[in-house]
Every structure is written in structure tokens, then in C-alpha cells.
């Protein structure tokens, strides 16, 4: 570096290390065993890249960025591959011998992946160490093995069994005497043996020359047989009738021996007749090849750095999450205060549910569940006493998109039509049942059975509904149908239904959470803090409608350009910003936006943006759950991407998996920060140093995603250390919960009637 005047530069370095190593990464290589007379202590079993970095640091007068550790055989193949793209095998035949070749990734069990190929360093010098070559080893081979520094190892590395000649002379003899057809060979043999202090006759020289020829011929044959096995493997992998390939070769024995190359080529063609093999001599394989591998590694490292920079925006620190929690608490207070409620983003809507179930609830109840593209009608039979039970019957009906985005009258007529069909199905059209209506959209409730729709979410856009009492809209539609009567007792938010369902099983449940298509929470707030409702005694469940958290810009510092793109392309631009960062309806779309950007920058899908990837909503959140599953190999991830029309490589699959994991992790953490604010608020309300509370949870994202629930719970624990929070999965909060709220409402109505 001093000579080249580049000591001040930190350049990417390729390290050619021509010994058997176990590699887990391109820049990591653990030495398995020394060969070629090396015996330096403290190196076997160590990462040679770390050792080299340590030595460079110790020297202290220059810096180097070691990008790749390369075997000389691989370097040979890469060098020849630059000149001939068919080159897929590399061989060294010199002081030692080794080979590498391009194997199909699907056959390499030690490496995750299934698409494409990877260079395998065979380390074939150890072939025979298990005794498989004993039938062709000679006494001379065994004697040389016993005298070596690694007896019993590297038996395939052919040496000259001439007991009266040292190893250096063996090689010299081989290069200079093996051409037995010339007198020059005999003359050289005479000179060499004389210098060794031997007085050879002409017959001695002929004998030595003959031995050299036999040994080198056997060496070429053995190498040819091993190479033939590799060529047959390549032919089989490719499934071709005739293989056309190039073998890159380096090494002093191959280059300098007068007959070796010819014998090797001839034997290979005889052993693998259905192959057209070109042998290409490498020029500085261990140098030029290492530089080429390093160049590729440098490009991939730069690509990885850009991808990590992109995803870094989604990786929130604990301080950032604590700040989200703090801002949520501020918005909760604004929603509860009378003077700021109107402008608050987190609306903290009263539900008029004043207590959780006490076990005395009894009767038959009808429940409606409207919260997504499907609509359910349920008959819920609640029985109290010693054999307390809840029995449910339900039927699911689709809501066509034209109804979701048509007029309000069309929507509610469709709902009533579904109720009529269900009552016919159950044979209960004559009964006037109490009904609970789970309506999973932001509503301002003025009583248990009156709720004014604040705004549509989740893709609904039916006209003439916002600002109207949805219970009245339902009652009017029932009147228009003129087929049956119902007693609408309660309008229920699915989050409140979730809390009530879990409270029926666990009395400490005072919080509800939905983490599914949408995201929302509710909890039992002190009446004295709910300034928009008269009264100060007891508690009331507050529907937070926290999906709109951030609509005033308080989360702008953690929103990314991808979040903004998702928001701009949504049906309700500028609204429900928190929900768009952490709910199932939007996570897949965030991922799609990132994938488009990475593809445009050439990091994914060969830089080609398919029509599929351009389609909004194509990347459903269920695909995130599937892709992130720990049980899925990259082959299955690739299959999922192919289902979406995305022709991906193994590397693409790895990147997509990381993108999905990063986006869903942020969602779980943001949701956890919000919940930490809620449980801390309950603790502070009650003046407790420590709170034990149960949160009832429902939603497909929480239930089906392989990591969401774990990360969410961990975040709550870290951000609210003074609260011991138990999480209980809800069983049908929007159905069973609606019936329970209706039952509690009926009980309360009877009590009120008795008091009057």
C-alpha cells in the first residue's frame, strides 16, 4: 500500500486464504485445519478475517475493509469466468489440489435458499480420509502419509513415492525428467541424481524417469476421475443431454509438467464422453479472482446499506416509543375535556356501558355485527346460575362493494334483508328479541341505544350516514321491510364488545383492544374525568377511537414517505393516521410501497416493476403473516411471491421477508405504546403504585400474525413497568359481546324501571 501510495485510503479488500474453511458469510471463514505444511498455533477453529483485522488494527498505520475471504480455487474460477461466462468449475493442481464448482442452491442443505446457484469449495484433498481409496493406495503412499505432518488426512493429494529423494527434488524431477521420449529428459535426470550424491547408471536414470511418468500419469487419472464426477453432477443438475462447460485451471503442476495437461484433458473426455469441456488457464486466479469476488461483495454490501437506511425509519427506539406513549396520554386528556373534545383527534367517546357483566345475565338476544366486508347476524342464548353458559348461532352475509359505497338507505336495507333471512332460517320471525348492534365505526353516543356516525372508515363510503343516528337508520329500514319487529337496546363498538366478552370470563378485564383490519381500544374511565357526560360517580367505558391519533400532525416526525403515500391513496386521506401505521388493512400496502421503491432503485426483482406490484391492495396483510412465519423456508416465501405474480430470486425473498418483519414490528410497537398509555392512565386514575389489569384482545393481526402479539406485549411491559398486564384472547367480542352488553342494558333498564 505504501508502494502504491494508497495507505491513506480505506479500500475494500479480498483475502485469498487457500486452506479448508467453514464459511457462514462472504466475510467470515473459520479455519477447519491447516494443510500444505502450515501449523501456526491458535488459528484452527478461529475466524481468519477477525485475526487479520486484529493484526491490521495492531499495526495501526492503515485501514482496510475486508469484504470477502476467497479460496484460491474459487478465485481461479472467477478469473476464468470473467473471460468465459461458461466457466463454472475451478481446479488447482499445484503444491496442493482442490476444486470448486457452481452447485444448485436447492441442493445445499447448509444454506437457506432454493433459487439460483452457489460456488462450493469441495476441499477434495481429503477425499479418501474415510478409507474409500484404500484399495488403490500403495505402500509408498502409506509411507509418505506416515511421514507427513497430518497423517491420515488429505490422502488424495498425490505425492511422489520416491523414498530416496526429498520432496523438493521430487517436484523438480517430475518437471524435468518425465518426457521419456527425449534424451534431454535422461540428461536432466542424470544431472539431478548426481547433484544428490548418487552415481546413477543410464539404466538407473531410465528407471527413475519411468517411475516419475507412472506417478504423474496416476495423478492426472485420479484428478480426471474426480473432475468427471463434478461434470456428471453439473450435467444432471441442468438436465441436459450434452454438457457444454469451461473449467478454469491453475497450479504449477498443471502449468509446468510437459505431459500433465494433455493426459488430464484426454482422460476427462474419455470418462465423460457426453460433455464438451474447455480447459482455460487462469491468470493470477488468487489475485484477480479475489478482487472480482470483492467487487461483487462490495456492490452487495452497498445495496444492503441502502436497504437498511430505508428500513431504519421504521425501527423506533425506546425513547421514540416513550414519546408516542406521552403524546397518546396528552390526546386522551384532550378527548376527555369538554373544552378540547371537539378538536381532539382521539375522541374518547362515551359508550354508556357503565358496568361489566356480573353473571346474572339471562335470556335470548339478537346481535348484528357490521365492521368489514362481511356482516353477521347472531342468536345468542345466555344462561345464568350454576350452569352459566353462552350458546350462539350465526350466519355470515357478504356486503358488496357497491353497497358499501352506495347510499345509506341501500346499505341498511341490505342489513335488514340479511336479518330477515336469518330469522327465517332460525324460525323466529314472530319473536320480538332485544338486539345489540355492533357497529365498528367511530360514533358519538348520546345513550346506550343512540349513536351518531362521526366518520366512515375501513373502505365504507355510504352516503347520508355521517352525522346521523345509525340506530334510527336501522329502525327505519326495519319499518320499511314490514316483516318483523326488534327491540334495539344497544349500539356496540367491537372494541367494547371484546372487553365485555373477556370480562364475562375474567372480572379484572377493564380494557378492550382490536388489532385486526382496523385498530382501536376502549377502557373503563372514571365518570368524573368524562366531562362531556353528566355525573361523577362510578365508571363508564370510553371508546377511544385511537385510529385518528396523529391526525393533528403529532406523529409526523415518525411517519415515513411510504406512510404518506399510503395515506394519499386511501379513501380518507389525512384521517386515521395512527391506524394506517399499525392496522392490518394498511400494513400490506406499506410493504408494497417500499417494494416499489426498492425495485425502482434496482435492489429487487431485477429492477423490473411488474403490473402486479403496481396494483394497489394486492399485497394483503395475510401475506405478511405467511411470509414472516418461522416455519417457512425461502422456497415457500418465493412461492407466495409467485402467487402475487412477482418473479423473485432467493435474495429478493430474503429482502421481502425483512421488509415485512420491519413494518409489522413497528405496527406492534406503536400499538403497544398506545396501550401502555391506557394502562398507565388507569393506574394514575386510581392513585396506585402498581396496577394489575386484564386486556381483552381480538383481531386477525393479533391472532394470526406469528410475531405481532409477542412484540406488542413486550412493548407494553417495557413502556408501562408499573403495570402487570394480562392479555386475554376474546371469543367473538363483536357477537357474544354485543349480546352481553344488550343483556347488561336490559338488566339496567329493569332496575331503572323499578326505581321509578
From TrEMBL:
Report the SUPFAM superfamilies cross-referenced here. Actin-like ATPase domain
E.C. numbers: 2.7.1.1
- Give one GO biological process term: glycolytic process
The UniProt GO MF terms for this protein read:
ATP binding; D-glucose binding; fructokinase activity; glucokinase activity; mannokinase activity
Q: Which UniProt keywords apply?
A: ATP-binding, Glycolysis, Kinase, Nucleotide-binding, Transferase
Domain (Hexokinase N-terminal): residue spans on this chain: 6-81, 307-504
Question: Which is a Gene Ontology cellular component entry for this protein?
Answer: cytosol
Keyword ATP-binding in the entry? The reply is yes
Q: Where is the Hexokinase C-terminal domain?
A: 89-155, 182-296, 511-744
Q: Which InterPro entries match?
A: ATPase_NBD, Hexokinase, Hexokinase_BS, Hexokinase_C, Hexokinase_N
Against Pfam families, the record matches this protein to: Hexokinase_1, Hexokinase_2
Note the superkingdom of the native organism: Eukaryota
Recorded metabolic or biological pathway in which this protein acts: Carbohydrate metabolism; hexose metabolism; Carbohydrate degradation; glycolysis; D-glyceraldehyde 3-phosphate and glycerone phosphate from D-glucose: step 1/4
Going by the record, the broad EC class of this enzyme is transferase
Query: Has the keyword Ribosomal protein been applied to this entry?
Result: no
Q: Which reaction does it catalyse?
A: D-glucose + ATP = D-glucose 6-phosphate + ADP + H(+); a D-hexose + ATP = a D-hexose 6-phosphate + ADP + H(+)
Q: Which family does it belong to?
A: Belongs to the hexokinase family.
What is the protein's name according to its record?
hexokinase
Amino acid at each position: 500500500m505504501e508502494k502504491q501510495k494508497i495507505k491513506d485510503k480505506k479500500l475494500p479488500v479480498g483475502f485469498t486464504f487457500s486452506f479448508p474453511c467453514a464459511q457462514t458469510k462472504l466475510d467470515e471463514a473459520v479455519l477447519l485445519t491447516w494443510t500444505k505444511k502450515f501449523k501456526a498455533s491458535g488459528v484452527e477453529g478461529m475466524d481468519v478475517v477477525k485475526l487479520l483485522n486484529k493484526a491490521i488494527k495492531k499495526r495501526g498505520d492503515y485501514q482496510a475493509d475486508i469484504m470477502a475471504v476467497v479460496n484460491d480455487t474459487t478465485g481461479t474460477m472467477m478469473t476464468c469466468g470473467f473471460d468465459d461466462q461458461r466457466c463454472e468449475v475451478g481446479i488447482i493442481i499445484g503444491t496442493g489440489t482442490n476444486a470448486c464448482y457452481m452447485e444448485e442452491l436447492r441442493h445445499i442443505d447448509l444454506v437457506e435458499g432454493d433459487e439460483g446457484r452457489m460456488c462450493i469449495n469441495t476441499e477434495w484433498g481429503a477425499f479418501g480420509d474415510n478409507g474409500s481409496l484404500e484399495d488403490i493406495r500403495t505402500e509408498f503412499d502409506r509411507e509418505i502419509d506416515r511421514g507427513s505432518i497430518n497423517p491420515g488426512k488429505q490422502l488424495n493429494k498425490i505425492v511422489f513415492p520416491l523414498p530416496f529423494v526429498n520432496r523438493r527434488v521430487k517436484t523438480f524431477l517430475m518437471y524435468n525428467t518425465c518426457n521419456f521420449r527425449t534424451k534431454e529428459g535422461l540428461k536432466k535426470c542424470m544431472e539431478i541424481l548426481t547433484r544428490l550424491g548418487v552415481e546413477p547408471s543410464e539404466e538407473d536414470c531410465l528407471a527413475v524417469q519411468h517411475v516419475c511418468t507412472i506417478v504423474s500419469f496416476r495423478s492426472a487419472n485420479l484428478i480426471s476421475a474426480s473432475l468427471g464426477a463434478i461434470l456428471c453432477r453439473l450435467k444432471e443438475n441442468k438436465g441436459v443431454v450434452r454438457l457444454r462447460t469451461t473449467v478454469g485451471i491453475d497450479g504449477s503442476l498443471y502449468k509446468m509438467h510437459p505431459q500433465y495437461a494433455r493426459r488430464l484433458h484426454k482422460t476427462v473426455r474419455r470418462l465423460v464422453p457426453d460433455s464438451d469441456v474447455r480447459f482455460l488457464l487462469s491468470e493470477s486466479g488468487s489475485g484477480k479472482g479475489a478482487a472480482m469476488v470483492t467487487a461483487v461483495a462490495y456492490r452487495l454490501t452497498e445495496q444492503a446499506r441502502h436497504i437498511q437506511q430505508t428500513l431504519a425509519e421504521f425501527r423506533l427506539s425506546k425513547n421514540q416509543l416513550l414519546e408516542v406513549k406521552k403524546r397518546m396520554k396528552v390526546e386522551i386528556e384532550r378527548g376527555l375535556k369538554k373544552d378540547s373534545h371537539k378538536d381532539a383527534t382521539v375522541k374518547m367517546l362515551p359508550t354508556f356501558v357503565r358496568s361489566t357483566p356480573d353473571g346474572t345475565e339471562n335470556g335470548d338476544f339478537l346481535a348484528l355485527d357490521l365492521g368489514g366486508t362481511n356482516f353477521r347476524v347472531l342468536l345468542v342464548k345466555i344462561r345464568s346460575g350454576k350452569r352459566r353458559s353462552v350458546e350462539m348461532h350465526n350466519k355470515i352475509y357478504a356486503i358488496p362493494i357497491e353497497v358499501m359505497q352506495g347510499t345509506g338507505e341501500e346499505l341498511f336495507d341490505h342489513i335488514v334483508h340479511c336479518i330477515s333471512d336469518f330469522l327465517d332460517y332460525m324460525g323466529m320471525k314472530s319473536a320480538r328479541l332485544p338486539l345489540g348492534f355492533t357497529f365498528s365505526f367511530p360514533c358519538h353516543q348520546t345513550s346506550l341505544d343512540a349513536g351518531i356516525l362521526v366518520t366512515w372508515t375501513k373502505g365504507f363510503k355510504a352516503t347520508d350516514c355521517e352525522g346521523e343516528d345509525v340506530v334510527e337508520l336501522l329502525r327505519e329500514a326495519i319499518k320499511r321491510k314490514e316483516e318483523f319487529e326488534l327491540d334495539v337496546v344497544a349500539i356496540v363498538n367491537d372494541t367494547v364488545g371484546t372487553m365485555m366478552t373477556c370480562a364475562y370470563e375474567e372480572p379484572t378485564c377493564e380494557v378492550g383492544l382490536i388489532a385486526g383490519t382496523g385498530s382501536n381500544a376502549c377502557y373503563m374511565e372514571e365518570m368524573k374525568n368524562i366531562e362531556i357526560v353528566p355525573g361523577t360517580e362510578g365508571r363508564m367505558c370510553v371508546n377511544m377511537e385511537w385510529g385518528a391519533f396523529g391526525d393533528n400532525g403529532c406523529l409526523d416526525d415518525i411517519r415515513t414517505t411510504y406512510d404518506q403515500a399510503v395515506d394519499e391513496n386511501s379513501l380518507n386521506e389525512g384521517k386515521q393516521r395512527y391506524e394506517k401505521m399499525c392496522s392490518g388493512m394498511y400494513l400490506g400496502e406499506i410493504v408494497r410501497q417500499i417494494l416499489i421503491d426498492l425495485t425502482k432503485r434496482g435492489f429487487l426483482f431485477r429492477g423490473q416493476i411488474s403490473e402486479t406490484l403496481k396494483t394497489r391492495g394486492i399485497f394483503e396483510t395475510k401475506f405478511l403473516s405467511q411470509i414472516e412465519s418461522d416455519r417457512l423456508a425461502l422456497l415457500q416465501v418465493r412461492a407466495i411471491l409467485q402467487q402475487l405474480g412477482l418473479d423473485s430470486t432467493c435474495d429478493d425473498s430474503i429482502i421481502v421477508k425483512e421488509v415485512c418483519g420491519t413494518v409489522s414490528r413497528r405496527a406492534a410497537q406503536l400499538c403497544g405504546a398506545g396501550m401502555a398509555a391506557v394502562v398507565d392512565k388507569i393506574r394514575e386514575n386510581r392513585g396506585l403504585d402498581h396496577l394489575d389489569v386484564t386486556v381483552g384482545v381480538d383481531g386477525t393481526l393479533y391472532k394470526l400474525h406469528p410475531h405481532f402479539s409477542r412484540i406488542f406485549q413486550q412493548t407494553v411491559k417495557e413502556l408501562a413497568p408499573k403495570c402487570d398486564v394480562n392479555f386475554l384472547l376474546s371469543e367473538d367480542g363483536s357477537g357474544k359481546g354485543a349480546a352481553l352488553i344488550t343483556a347488561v342494558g336490559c338488566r339496567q333498564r329493569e332496575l331503572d324501571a323499578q326505581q321509578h
